[in-house]
Design brief:
Elements: E1 4-5, E2 10-13, E3 19-24, E4 27-31, H1 37-47, E5 53-58, H2 64-67, H3 70-77, E6 80-83, H4 88-92, H5 96-102, E7 123-124, H6 125-132, E8 135-138, E9 147-151, E10 154-158, H7 164-170, H8 178-191, E11 197-200, H9 208-231, E12 238-239, H10 240-248, H11 256-275, E13 279-284, E14 287-292
Parallel strand pairs: 4-5, 5-6, 6-7, 10-11
Antiparallel strand pairs: 1-2, 2-3, 3-4, 8-9, 9-10, 12-14, 13-14
Helix pairs in contact: 1-3, 8-9
Length: about 300
Amino acid sequence: MPLVRLSDHVFVVPGRTNVGVIVFGNECVIIDTGIDEDSGRRVLNSIRELNVRVRAVVNTHHHADHIGGDALIVRRTNALVYASPEDGPFIERPLLEPLYLYGAFPPRVLRGKFLEAEGVSVRDVGELRGEVGFDVVPLPGHTLGMVGIAYEGVLFSADAFFPVDVIRKYGVPYHLDVRGALDSLGRLRGLVGGYVHVVPAHGGVVSPSEAVSIIDENVRVITRLRDVVLSHLSSGSVGLDDLVVRVLGDFGVDSLPNYFLNRSALLSYVGWLADEGVVELGFVGGRPVVSRVSR
């Protein structure tokens, strides 16, 4: 992976998951590490030209495609790993990810590198922020405690928003808390103008104006998916599992892990709509059902 300079001391290693590098004197902080050990090796090879010691890894959130290279980098460099207090436990015990998606101890088919990385010890990112001086931008929604990292005019925005081609292709951007994600998108839209470069975890580096356009498209997709969920309730109550199947039938779901991810995302929409009083969750005939609330 080529190392791309974005400012005097900030670099990105482009890839399926973009990896950030912030240099402080003869040390550096790595932001996310990709999906597996090979990703970690590529990151270390890419930064070799900087001739700096890896002081720390900051994980923007706990998903496997962001933490998969942590363990290798820790073993090779003795770096410490930092994350938010909310996401840290999932990085230390990555089994928690497939466990909560499946709802019980997960079968092996859900324990591959796509969902479960190797765990490492984690410290609170606030400690490192105080020592090093980068900004931590709370961006909850995609996970409970996702954060962005900003330094020297560059914002690493994690998975707060997805490239337009990705969300148009798959249709269901994953958010554990979609209402929280929508709030984060609104705040992020007002923040990006203060940076020179915005680096989403997936896709290319964008300008602030490009970021605003992509954020707006992400908001439209969330709104459309909310409307799709409601359209499947227009004729009356629907079993919760049936609703998931019906909505996912409108989109391409190509694997068991993707099914459980998309199911989790859709359940977040149902929870959002229920909390807003738009739908009601009930229990009828031995199963959970979802109904529109009459206005």
